[in-house]
Structures are given as structure tokens and as C-alpha cells.
Specification:
This protein is an alpha/beta fold. It has 2 domains: about 10-175, Rossmann fold (3-Layer(aba) Sandwich), CATH 3.40.50; about 175-465, L-fucose Isomerase, Chain A, domain 3, CATH 3.20.14. The chain has 16 helices and 19 strands. It has helices at about 20-25, 30-40, 60-70, 90-95, 115-120, 125-140, 155-175, 195-200, 210-220, 220-235, 245-265, 275, 285-295, 305-320, 425-435, 450-460; strands at about 10-15, 50, 75-80, 100-105, 145, 175-180, 205-210, 235-240, 270, 300, 325-330, 335-340, 355-360, 375, 380-390, 395-405, 420-425, 440-445, 465. Strands 11-12-17-16-15-18 form a 6-stranded antiparallel β-barrel. It has a 5-stranded parallel β-sheet with strand order 2-1-3-4-5, with helices on both faces. Strands 7-6-9-10 form a 4-stranded parallel β-sheet. Helix 9 packs across helix 11 (about 245-265). It starts with 9 loop residues before the first strand and ends with a strand.
Length: about 475
């Protein structure tokens, strides 16, 4: 089952100190453990925090990190509870397989005239952070640093942004992308070296035969089909021209796709219209299925575009409700770009003041019958688009643009999801930079401004970030 976007990241807390202070200040380990719990409580709405006993030795640190990795956590927040010599954590952090952040915090936010040597010891984590960070820099380990008052909203916000980026990177490393059939012939910006993709970022490509989809459709039970149709009746304004046959066939395709994704352990997928059209056994393309499955948290891209499908899945993990789209045309009078695709789009980004429609939609592409298609306009407001660029070998680049979805005109002839995106840098500057950076034509869009989060993803994943 795909990970739902609303799930909180699971973050381990590695509290570091040393045995030296136990003789000097009896009870200090218990005291600092309680402080760690208060920090975790402060972050309870941001992430699911997993605590362990303070790591006071090399054996402790390596045991805790092994536990966190074994439990499949999304990241580790390193907290200096006192000064701790970095050589005790050098291997544990230098060989970390999950993203790291160093929280440069201390129990008391201010130095006080009432402080004694005990208070100095409780609050001396800053020079332990320096020693530990130095070890991670020497090891070439990417990590985030968060220097804040741990009781402040800013600390929560920064940990929230890092934790979602960590979840994104960890989810990528576990991801399997299903591709039904084959990629679109001649579409170069979607091509990727599969070995480099899994080596650098983690997603694995898994081909699923169209024949398996056809057989699984035939095995769909009536109850599941009628249940999906009823759910669509409740959510969408359904076109009266859609026949029972068209809706049932679409429902079987969606159910079969999801069952196969679960069976093969795939949380993202791509279909190509020619691969299904030329197969000869399918009546229509799974347009509405793609929209519904994106709304359920799956990554998706059209035309067999594995990098874009993986990026849409990453968008779910980073910001929630990721939407697959592409740049269709420029509108210079409004300094915006018309965003759409053939008919696939996450209806969770639809305008809240208009119904989402399920329409009968003539479509010649693929040479098949009319596919039921979800149609909506995108919610106006802040938005971010991103493109994963494969530059050859182990070189990957993420091209990102922030801007806004305009409260723009109706385009009644467009029988697919659409909206107009105005880049913050303007269409001319944005597109000049986008094209120079090799930005692809298949994109992920999230509502809200998320460039800072994408930048963190790139830093943690070790790939290039380019904002345009």
C-alpha cells in the first residue's frame, strides 16, 4: 500500500553525551534524557519521534543507529546533550544510511548570572556540535544544521521542513516505479540510466506486462467495481453521457492497476498510450485511474516517464497532494504558463469553489474508445513546480520554480485538468533559465511554496539544485 501523504515522518533522536560527567554530576544522564523527551514533545505535531537512551559511548551510538536503520526510520536528529567527543560517533554517523540533521540546541535559551558549573555542563552542547559536525564534514556525509531555541516556532518549522525532506529522500531510496509496457519512442528528456537512478537516488524500475493488467481486470469482482463507481458519484459531478460500460471498464482498470502496484511493491507508476493502444486488448486509456491514484498518494507520469513518476511520488512525501502536469503554452499578457496534460491530474489540487467533473471525453490518442476523464481547474494561490533532470552518469539536477496559480479564465474546450502558473521570476526569465538548465517537460506541481524543501532534498540526496 502506498504511503499516504498525511503520514508524519518517523524520525529517530540520537542524544549524545559521555560517561565523564556522571561522576561529576550524578543524575545528569537522566536529567538530559528528560530534556530530550521535552524536545520530542515540542516536535510531536511535526514528526513521530523515536527515542533511545542517551549515547554515552561509541558502542551506544552504533547500537542506536543500527536500531534506527533497522526500523526503517526516515531520518535521525542528532542532539548534543553535553559535549561528546566526535570519534565516538564517527563511524555511526559516517556510515549512516538515512538522512541526518544536527540540532544545535541547548536546554536553556539564555545565559543567566545564576548559572553554576552544572548549568554550564547541561548547556555546553555547542562545542560538541562543532566536533561532531567536523567529523561528518570530513566523512563527506550530507547533513542539515538547525541552530535555534528548541522551544521556538522557528525550531519546529525548520525541523518540519528537514523531516519532510528526509522522508522524501528515504522514500526515494525504497521506491519501486512500475512501468506498464514501454516508454514513448523518441522522448529524450524522460530517458534515464536505470543503474544510475537506483545508485544515486534509489528508485528501481519494474516493468509490468500489459497482459498482466488485462488478466487482472478480468478478475475484478463486481463489489469492488460498484464501490469505486459509487465513490466517484459522491465526489464528482458525473457526465450523464458516460455509459455504464465506460464507467465499469474504467473502474476495472483502476482497480487492476492498484492491485498490480501493490503486488509488485510499486508506489509510483507510468503508462504510455501507445503501449496500451497497440496491445489490442484494451478499450480505453486509464485517464481517470491516474487522477484517482495520484489522489491516493501514488506517483504517476505519462508516456513511460520513470523520473517524473518518481518525482511526483517525492512531491507527495515532501508537501502532499502532488500533481503531474506539463507546460502547454505561454500567456504573455498575464506573464503565466498554461499547465495541463492529456487528462491525468491530482484532483486534490482542484479549486474548492467548483465541482470536479468526471466527463465523457473524446480522445484520438492511442486509437481507443473515449476514456472517462477528470476535469478541474487548479486552486489559485502559491505553487511550486519541479523537474528531475537526468544529465548522464551519476549527474542529476532538480530544476524548481516558485510562483502562483492565477485566478484565471475558463477554457471550456480543454477537457482535462488545467491552470495558469505565473513564475515569481516571470515567464521570460523563468523559461530562459529553465531551458538552459535542461528542465524537462513533465513536472510535479505542489500548492504552496516549497523551493526550500526541494533544496534540502537535493542536499540530502547529493544532487544539484537549480531554482529559476
Amino acid at each position: 500500500m502506498t504511503q499516504t501523504p498525511a503520514q508524519r515522518p518517523r524520525i529517530g533522536v540520537l542524544g549524545i553525551m559521555q560517561e565523564l560527567y556522571d561522576d561529576m554530576l550524578p543524575g545528569i544522564t537522566e536529567r538530559q534524557a528528560e530534556y530530550t523527551q521535552r524536545v520530542a514533545d515540542q516536535l510531536s505535531g511535526v514528526a513521530e519521534l523515536v527515542l533511545d537512551t542517551p549515547a554515552r559511548s561509541r558502542a551506544d551510538a552504533e547500537r542506536v543507529m543500527r536500531r534506527f536503520e533497522h526500523e526503517g526510520l526516515d531520518g535521525v536528529l542528532v542532539v548534543m546533550l553535553t559535549y561528546g567527543p566526535s570519534l565516538r560517533v564517527t563511524r555511526a554517523l559516517g556510515e549512516a544510511r538515512i538522512p541526518l540533521a544536527l540540532a544545535n540546541i541547548q536546554p536553556d535559551p539564555a545565559v543567566s548570572p545564576d548559572w553554576d558549573m552544572a548549568d554550564m555542563t547541561y548547556n555546553q552542547g555547542i562545542h560538541g556540535a562543532q566536533d561532531t559536525a567536523n567529523a561528518m564534514v570530513r566523512a563527506g556525509v550530507p547533513f542539515e544544521v538547525i541552530t535555534e531555541d528548541w522551544q521556538s516556532p522557528e525550531f519546529r518549522d525548520r525541523v518540519d521542513r528537514w523531516a519532510r525532506a528526509a522522508r522524501t529522500v528515504s522514500a526515494w531510496r525504497r521506491l519501486r516505479v512500475g512501468i506498464f509496457g514501454y516508454p514513448m519512442n523518441g522522448m529524450g528528456d524522460a530517458r534515464v540510466d536505470e543503474s544510475a537512478l537506483i545508485r544515486v537516488l534509489g528508485p528501481q524500475v519494474h516493468v509490468i506486462a500489459p497482459g498482466q493488467l488485462y488478466r487482472t481486470m478480468g478478475d475484478c469482482d463486481t463489489e469492488s467495481v460498484t464501490g469505486l463507481i459509487a465513490a466517484e458519484d459522491d465526489r464528482f459531478r458525473v457526465d450523464e453521457k458516460l455509459s455504464v460500460t465506460e464507467r465499469e471498464d474504467h473502474a476495472r482498470m483502476q482497480i487492476a492497476i492498484e492491485r498490480l502496484l501493490r503486488h509488485h511493491g510499486c508506489d509510483a507508476y507510468s503508462t504510455h498510450f501507445d503501449a496500451l493502444g497497440e496491445d489490442g486488448r484494451f478499450s480505453r486509456l486509464p485517464m481517470a485511474a491516474a487522477s484517482n491514484l495520484m489522489a491516493r498518494g501514488y506517483g504517476f507520469a505519462g508516456e513511460g516517464d520513470v523520473p517524473a513518476a518518481a518525482l511526483v511520488y517525492a512531491g507527495h512525501q515532501l508537501a502532499g497532494d502532488a500533481h503531474f502536469t506539463e507546460m502547454y503554452a505561454m500567456d504573455f499578457p498575464t506573464d503565466s504558463i498554461l499547465m495541463s496534460h492529456m487528462g491525468e491530474g491530482n484532483w486534490r489540487v482542484a479549486r474548492t469553489d467548483e465541482p470536479v467533473e468526471l466527463i465523457k471525453r473524446p480522445l484520438d490518442i492511442g486509437g481507443l474508445d473515449d476514456p472517462p476523464t477528470v476535469r478541474f481547474r487548479i486552486q489559485p494561490g502559491p505553487a511550486t513546480v519541479a523537474s528531475l533532470v537526468c544529465l548522464g552518469g551519476d549527474h542529476f539536477r532538480l530544476v524548481v520554480s516558485e510562483g502562483e496559480i492565477l485566478d484565471s479564465q475558463h477554457l471550456p474546450a480543454l477537457e482535462m485538468p488545467y491552470g495558469q502558473f505565473r513564475p515569481a521570476s516571470g515567464v521570460r526569465a523563468c523559461m530562459d533559465a529553465w531551458l538552459r538548465a535542461g528542465g524537462t517537460h513533465h513536472l510535479v506541481m505542489n500548492l504552496g511554496h516549497h523551493a526550500a524543501g526541494w533544496r534540502l532534498v537535493c542536499e540530502l540526496a547529493g544532487i544539484e539544485f537549480r531554482q529559476v
